[in-house]
Write a structure and sequence with these properties.
Blueprint lengths: L1 H5 L11 H30 L3 H35 L3 H33 L3
Helix pairs in contact: 2-3, 2-4, 3-4
């Protein structure tokens, strides 16, 4: 009986790991940063920012969106594995939907910022 009480709390739940929570929070923060950069670019068009600043915003948006789309895809694979190995299926399905939307949004941001940067570069 002493062994049963001794090892009662030795099992950990995989869904509550600090690394996974930090990764999901980082993904949300970087996605919000992409939205802020898009908003800054739109405001810059109306406030007549300099062309170099607008180009810099597009470049940063492109790199951040590439990082976040790759990060979202890796987390999506991890969440898919967790979906089949853990009990918390509804939470994992909601996380998968959020990660898929984040990946699609960031891929769209990457493409759009590269197209706008190419067009605004002009003919050389």
């Amino acid at each position: 009986m002493a062994n049963k009480l001794k090892f009662k709390y030795s099992k950990k739940l995989l869904s509550n790991t600090l690394t996974y929570k930090f990764s999901m929070t980082l993904n949300l923060a970087v996605t919000a940063f992409c939205v802020i950069l898009i908003t800054l670019y739109i405001i810059g068009n109306y406030q007549n920012f300099q062309d170099e600043n607008q180009q810099w915003i597009l470049t940063v948006l492109s790199y951040v969106a590439i990082f976040n789309s790759l990060f979202s895809i890796v987390l999506l694979v991890e969440t898919a594995i967790k979906l089949f190995t853990e009990k918390h299926q509804i939470k994992n399905i909601i996380n998968m939907i959020a990660l898929f939307c984040s990946a699609v949004f960031c891929i769209f941001c990457t493409g759009t910022s590269n197209i706008i940067g190419y067009i605004s570069g002009g003919i050389r």
